[in-house]
Design brief:
The complex is a heterodimer. In chain A, 0% of the residues lie in helices and 50% in strands. Chain A is mostly beta strands. In chain A, strands 2, 4, 5, 6, 9, 10 and 11 form a 7-stranded mixed beta sheet that branches. A 4-stranded antiparallel beta sheet of chain A has the order 1-3-8-7, with no helix packed on it. Chain A is globular, with a radius of gyration of 13 Å. In chain B, β7 and β8 form a beta hairpin. Chain B is mostly beta strands. In chain B, 0% of the residues lie in helices and 53% in strands. The radius of gyration of chain B is 13 Å and the shape is globular. The chains are: A mainly beta, B mainly beta. At the A-B interface, β4, β5, β9 and β10 of A face β4, β5 and β10 of B.
């Protein structure tokens, strides 16, 4: 069964460093999302992406964040200068249509030291 | 805010018993989705119910939706120890362009053998 994959599973970085989190959505899906979950808290929406552009972003998704679909398969989230409070599990999700099921990847645990 | 909120926060039952979790939300929706998350792992999609549906089944899962009360329930019948996980409801919002999801805090279900 097709699934969303994410790499790496765990990333440790120093405060101020740039990180790129990678996702491969389900192949025929058109809508892509990033969410994050700080330990013990709710899953929070970051950004949605369709047709090679951001559709919607939350207040969390500030200028330090960017997304890109560099080729036909990958979808990346870049954090330019990480802060301690960026430590969280980051989930990529994809959907075949905008109000259909969103399927989530296994997540990347980001630890900022 | 839009967020769904699950009730109870924690539920502890014996194998073979049924587990019922509830979700309430605040604004109108296109659909509501239920997810499962094992500790520290990814979100597994369980079921999607649209705003014009009242009940949906998938295997041992039964989901109901009452849009007049802005609430949903997830019933797991004949529970197993492997059902132990956190369960989240996620709602979209009619104003959302690509169906960004709002998650509740989840119900932690423990099923004892």
């Amino acid at each position: 069964e097709p699934e969303v994959t994410q790499t790496p599973s765990h990333q440790v970085t120093q405060m101020g460093q740039e990180v790129i989190l990678r996702c491969v959505p389900i192949s025929n899906h058109l809508y892509f999302y990033w969410y994050r979950q700080i330990l013990g808290q709710k899953v929070e929406f970051l950004v949605s992406f369709y047709n090679n552009e951001i559709s919607e972003k939350s207040e969390i998704f500030d200028d330090q964040f960017s997304v890109e679909r560099p080729d036909g398969s990958n979808f990346t989230l870049k954090i330019r200068s990480t802060k301690l409070e960026d430590s969280a599990m980051y989930f990529c999700a994809s959907s075949a249509w905008r109000y259909n099921e969103q399927f989530f990847g296994p997540g990347t645990r980001l630890t900022v030291l | 805010s839009q967020q769904g909120e699950e009730d109870p926060q924690a539920l502890s039952i014996q194998e073979g018993e049924n587990a019922t979790m509830n979700c309430s939300y605040k604004t109108s929706i296109n659909n509501l989705q239920w997810y499962r998350q094992n500790s520290g792992r990814g979100l597994v999609h369980l079921i999607l119910i649209r705003s014009n549906e009242r009940e949906k089944h998938s295997g041992r899962l039964r989901v109901t939706l009452d849009t007049s009360k802005k609430s949903s329930s997830l019933l797991i019948t004949a529970s197993r120890a492997a059902d132990t996980a956190s369960y989240f409801c996620a709602t979209d919002g009619r104003g959302s362009t690509l169906g960004r999801l709002y998650f509740g805090r989840g119900t932690q279900l423990t099923v004892w053998p």
